[in-house]
Amino acid sequence: MVRHFLRDDDLTPAEQAEVLDLAAELKRDRFARRPLEGPRSVAVLFDKPSTRTRVSFAVGIAELGGHALIMDAGASQLGRGETIADTARVLERQVSAIVWRTSGQERIEEMADGTAVPVVNALTDRFHPCQVLADLQTIKEAKGALAGLTLAYFGDGANNMAHSYLLGGATAGMHVRIAAPEQLPPDPAVVERAAEIAAATGGSVTVTADAKRAAAGADVLATDTWVSMGQEGKDTSAYEPYAVDEALLAQAAPDARVLHCLPAYRGKEISAAVLDGPQSVVWDEAENRLHAQKALLTWLLEH
Ligand code: CP
Ligand code: NVA
C-alpha cells in the first residue's frame, strides 16, 4: 500500500521519529541518500504562491538525485477543469511522487485516492504538515528532545498551522496549547483527534483564549500570519491580543525558542524585536524545510 502524507497524523509517533532522525542525518550529510537517482521525477504543483516550499522541494529533490517538475497548477489543465482524478492517473505514469499546495483538503485526498505514487501535502487550508515536520526538527535541535515540551501557538487558531501543530505536536508527545479568540477556535474535530493522539503519547492539548496563560512557562512560542492565503481583506482585530511580542515572550520559559513558518508580518502577529531577536529560530526553521522534506520523501519512497 502506497503511503501518503496528507496530514500530520499520517505518520505514527514511531514513524515521525524515524523521519526526524533521517532529517538530522541529511542535515549532517546532504548527499547521504539518493532515492531518486536516475533521475526519477517528482511533480510539485502549486495552486497558491510559495517561496520556501517551492525552493526547498526543488533543491531537495535535486539533492536526492531526482528531477523536480515544478508547475503552477493554474497553468496546467487542472486550471481549466480537468479533473483531479484524471490528472492523478496521468501523473502516476511518469513521476515517482506528487507534491501539491492547494486549497481544500478534499482536493489532495482526491489526488491521493486516484494515484499509486506517494502524495505529499505542501499546504492546504486545513494542514501544513511539511512545515510542522521542519518545526519539530528545529525544536529538537534547540532542546535535544520533543516529548514533554510545551509548544504554545498564538493567533489564528483555525488555520493550517494551528491544526498541524495540534496533530504533529501531539504525535511527538508535546503539550500543545492554542491561544486564539474564543469565537475563532481550531476545528473541534482536529482538537479531538489531537487529544486522542496525545493520550497515547503522553502529550496534551489545551485551547484557551488567554494568551498570557498559554505562554506561561512554555518552551516554544509559535505564531503565523493572521491572514492566510485566500483570506485577503479579513478583519484581524480579534487577533491583536495574541501578538507574540516582548511582553508575551517574558511569560515563557527563560530559554524559550520562537517559531514562525514565514512569511512574517512584523508589527502584526509578531514584533520585529522577537522575530529578529536571540530566541528566534525562524531561519533554522526555514532551512529545515529542506532536510525534513528530503527525509520525508526518502521515507515515503522506501515504504
Ligand atoms: N512557510 C511556507 O510554507 O512558506 P512559503 O509559503 O513561502 O512556501
Ligand atoms: N497560514 C499561512 C501559512 C503560509 C505558509 C497560509 O495558509 O497562508
Automatic annotation (TrEMBL):
<feature type="binding site">
    <location>
        <position position="160"/>
    </location>
    <ligand>
        <name>L-ornithine</name>
    </ligand>
</feature>
<keyword id="KW-0808">Transferase</keyword>
<feature type="domain" description="Aspartate/ornithine carbamoyltransferase Asp/Orn-binding">
    <location>
        <begin position="148"/>
        <end position="300"/>
    </location>
</feature>
<dbReference type="InterPro" id="IPR006132">
    <property type="entry name" value="Asp/Orn_carbamoyltranf_P-bd"/>
</dbReference>
<dbReference type="InterPro" id="IPR024904">
    <property type="entry name" value="OTCase_ArgI"/>
</dbReference>
<feature type="binding site">
    <location>
        <begin position="228"/>
        <end position="229"/>
    </location>
    <ligand>
        <name>L-ornithine</name>
    </ligand>
</feature>
<feature type="binding site">
    <location>
        <position position="289"/>
    </location>
    <ligand>
        <name>carbamoyl phosphate</name>
    </ligand>
</feature>
<keyword id="KW-0963">Cytoplasm</keyword>
<dbReference type="InterPro" id="IPR002292">
    <property type="entry name" value="Orn/put_carbamltrans"/>
</dbReference>
<feature type="binding site">
    <location>
        <begin position="261"/>
        <end position="262"/>
    </location>
    <ligand>
        <name>carbamoyl phosphate</name>
    </ligand>
</feature>
<feature type="domain" description="Aspartate/ornithine carbamoyltransferase carbamoyl-P binding">
    <location>
        <begin position="3"/>
        <end position="141"/>
    </location>
</feature>
<feature type="binding site">
    <location>
        <position position="101"/>
    </location>
    <ligand>
        <name>carbamoyl phosphate</name>
    </ligand>
</feature>
<comment type="similarity">
    <text>Belongs to the aspartate/ornithine carbamoyltransferase superfamily. OTCase family.</text>
</comment>
<dbReference type="Pfam" id="PF00185">
    <property type="entry name" value="OTCace"/>
</dbReference>
<dbReference type="InterPro" id="IPR006130">
    <property type="entry name" value="Asp/Orn_carbamoylTrfase"/>
</dbReference>
<dbReference type="InterPro" id="IPR036901">
    <property type="entry name" value="Asp/Orn_carbamoylTrfase_sf"/>
</dbReference>
<dbReference type="Pfam" id="PF02729">
    <property type="entry name" value="OTCace_N"/>
</dbReference>
<dbReference type="InterPro" id="IPR006131">
    <property type="entry name" value="Asp_carbamoyltransf_Asp/Orn-bd"/>
</dbReference>
<feature type="binding site">
    <location>
        <begin position="128"/>
        <end position="131"/>
    </location>
    <ligand>
        <name>carbamoyl phosphate</name>
    </ligand>
</feature>
<feature type="binding site">
    <location>
        <begin position="50"/>
        <end position="53"/>
    </location>
    <ligand>
        <name>carbamoyl phosphate</name>
    </ligand>
</feature>
<feature type="binding site">
    <location>
        <position position="224"/>
    </location>
    <ligand>
        <name>L-ornithine</name>
    </ligand>
</feature>
<protein>
    <recommendedName>
        <fullName>Ornithine carbamoyltransferase</fullName>
        <ecNumber>2.1.3.3</ecNumber>
    </recommendedName>
</protein>
<comment type="pathway">
    <text>Amino-acid biosynthesis; L-arginine biosynthesis; L-arginine from L-ornithine and carbamoyl phosphate: step 1/3.</text>
</comment>
<feature type="binding site">
    <location>
        <position position="77"/>
    </location>
    <ligand>
        <name>carbamoyl phosphate</name>
    </ligand>
</feature>
